[in-house]
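To assess whether the prediction recovers the assembly geometry, we first specified each molecular entity separately, as shown.
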Amino acid sequence: MRGRQAAQLLALPGLLVLLGVVAFPLLYAFFLSLTRYSFLRPQYAWAGLARYREALEDPYFLHALGLTALYVALTVGLTLALGLLLAVLLHQGLPLRGFHYFAVSLPMLIAPVGVGLIWKMILHPELGILAYLFGGVDFFGDPRYALLSLALVDVWQQTSFAALVLLAGLRSLPKEPLEAARVDGATPWQAFWYVTFPLLRPVLLALLVLQTLAEVRTYDLVYVLTRGGPGSATDLVSYYIYRKAFLGLDLSGAGAMGYLLLLLTLALVALYYRFLTRG
Amino acid sequence: MKRLLSVLALVLGLALAQGVVLRALMEDVPETRIIEALLPEFERATGIRVEFEVVQYSAMHDKLVAQLTAPESAYDFLQVDFLWAGEFPAAGWLEPLEPFVKASGFDLSAYFPSMLDLVGYYRGTLYMIPMYNYAMGLIYRKDLLERKDLKEGFQAQFRRPLALPKSLQEYVDLSLFMAKRAGVAGAAMQGQRGDPNFMEFSNYLFAAGGDYVDRNWRVTLNSPQGERALALYVRNIREGAQKGALNANLDDTFRVMCQGGAFSMITYWWMLPQLDNPKQCSKVAGKVALAPMPGGAGVNGGWGWAIPKNGRNKEAAWRFISWVESKEIVKRRALQGHAPTRKDVFQDPEVLKKYPYYKEVERILAGAKKVPIFAYTAEMEDVVGREVSLAASGRKPVKQALQDAAKGLEGLLKKAGLLR
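The predicted structure of the complete assembly is given in tokenized form:
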């Protein structure tokens, strides 16, 4: 009992810090979202749910939400598919393993702003090597390609994390079921699809949740690469909320939008759990 | 007796002045270094030491606001960008300067009215002394205007000689002509949504005779002039500009122009010495020139000096401002490349000899207009920039985009309490 009390006592400072930097801002933002508070008029005028209604009536916010849904589906889908492919390849034991590990983990080590700047040059319509090879495609200046280009840059970075997590997952799988499958005459494809994949499900679920949360929060790449343009072709919701707070100086409006986003994300994660833990 | 008293007062004054240290937050640009190098002279003359805290532009606003909302400001005088020239006085953070001007006999008539309007007065009260200007104008390639085949082709197509455009329509015509015939982009355009395309479009708007608001803050953006300006802007960015213009910012346009990839750009006038520098832009140095925005009016920009209301040494701060803005010091700053705001310095023979293009800058300044400066200027750039970009990328008809931009602007003016 003494040991347990001591442990609790030792954990207290950490918990207090967490309370200060996570719980307090979360609750404070919620409180703000129920008021009309801005940097210019720092008064807590009660507004009830009016800020939420205003957010839901803002066509540009709704556009940003829809765009973000598309973006998340695109990036998470591609990241998981490519990550799984890379993980399986690495798991097969290629020659030069050390080199491949290093190369695959490299994108993860670069800060997103750095990734943005590097790709900005690679895809630059006049100076970029890829723009040159693709016959001068205007990756970020053409509203038809801008979102896709942004998503591909994001996938390039995120895939390395996905690959490493899935590789760790593959490594930790029990060998017996696979051997049994082989003895029973399963083809490699059948073994993968009916044995490995179901066993990998918990890892995939965790990754799916992590990646979805990361992509919903995409802000840095938009800031560096497109500023939400051309038009509003890449105006993702996190960037929209940031502008509401810091250009519009409207903390409570941004708070309401932030909470709406949080609710949607929670609902999505709950859905994931239901579908993927079934059976 | 009287004499003794005045000597005593002088000694006392000197003793008090001794040991005064003025602090200010300054932007990390060459102009700050130019002033810094002159500070020992001020200290020798007055006994007042001045210390600069030098930071990047992006860090300035937040640091200033933190000090201005504190009980006592750590900064004794301020460098205020025109984008904050509505916010700071409206919040009551700046000391009115008229009493200081009167007491010291400081001559305001030396300043361009457009500069005093931008970074001097706010709603009739003087809060700032203009310090630096960065108005916008047209930078173009002289050599292309003189090329024989282009001259002939232009004459044949437009039935007038190839020359500097006199109106916005003529400018866009010329830009499209160059894009088709000269093997370069007609204009290097900064179409990225937000500050870049807002600033650029504002030049088109003013050049076409339009404006954002009238004197009573009623929105006038959605006018026939506004529509013509946006239509011409969209046409130029789609047919006359470099590839990628819809996502380009100031750096991108500078690179295009520097590499000889464009005939013209609408930009800050201080870009000219950069482009004309053979060490930096060997391909176009000697071939570029500056002119006012075709149509006469471009966008004004600038910095002003101010004294915070919660400052500790207001008298000493004013002594510094009136010293650094005296004709002699402004001239010495100007000779080292610090853009002046005083007419007499622009007309100084020595200054003109070193920078002949200041003649053009003077014309640019005389005609420059300001974009609406109020509490939500930053959000206005975002809202108008979004609509301009939607029109430019073909996602919204010009008329609709202009209407939505005007509506957005009106909402912001209402939020700021300037409109009912």
